[in-house]
Specification:
mainly beta; four-stranded antiparallel sheet; 15 strands; 0% helix
Length: 201
């Protein structure tokens, strides 16, 4: 299956076989209706999904809650967000911790076990506090202990850090500093990278 999530909290599950005859001009995968696609993952239909919003809340639900639909369908509600907030991450859960990060450079790792499975379409629970210190949530992903992450600031600075340097703390907390930013800068994204044994490689 191809699992999709949009910025407004809509999700959609489509059989991969429906994408088996691509055209040179592409094929419609989802009716966005003015929305924006945030992320897409290939799944086996039996996974658990986590959506994370810019308001610091996350919802965990079973993929089976989202019935397969045709390519032209718009999808169903995955998470209900307040006006002005949006989905910033889609995680298909596997082994590892959930790493969340905020625009002022703070973040943390949290066990997925702290997020109980709910029905899709709810408001979710706090994944990281979006306080004045932290700002809005800008990224979340699942990481293993031997991963590294790349943090990207608004002025183009990249910082690479081992995941093990980031504290594992509870769900309803603010986190710790991940990257030091100037007053006019913010964290705009993060990405998981495979650990590199040495710079020579």
């Amino acid at each position: 299956f191809v699992f999709m999530a949009t910025s407004s909290g809509t999700v959609k599950n489509t059989s991969l076989s429906q994408c088996s005859r691509p055209r040179a001009s592409g094929i419609i995968a989802i009716d966005l209706r003015g929305d924006r696609l945030v992320d897409v993952a290939v799944t086996d239909g039996e996974r658990e999904i986590m959506l994370v919003g810019s308001n610091g809340k996350a919802i965990r639900f079973s993929e089976s809650d989202v019935r397969p639909m045709g390519r032209g369908a718009a999808g169903v509600r995955g998470i209900r967000l307040p006006s002005g907030d949006e989905v910033i991450a889609l995680c298909v859960l596997d082994e590892g911790m959930i790493l969340s990060a905020t625009e002022h450079g703070y973040g943390k790792r949290t066990s997925p076990d702290e997020f109980s499975v709910q029905g899709r379409g709810g408001q979710g629970v706090i994944a990281i506090q979006t306080s004045e210190r932290n700002g809005r949530t800008v990224g979340a992903l699942q990481v293993a202990d031997d991963d590294e992450i790349m943090l990207i600031s608004s002025n183009g600075t990249l910082v690479r850090t081992p995941v093990t340097d980031i504290s594992v703390i509870g769900r309803n907390t603010q986190g710790v500093r991940l990257i030091r930013l100037e007053d006019d800068q913010r964290l705009v994204g993060l990405a998981r990278i495979e650990a590199i044994e040495s710079d020579d490689e």
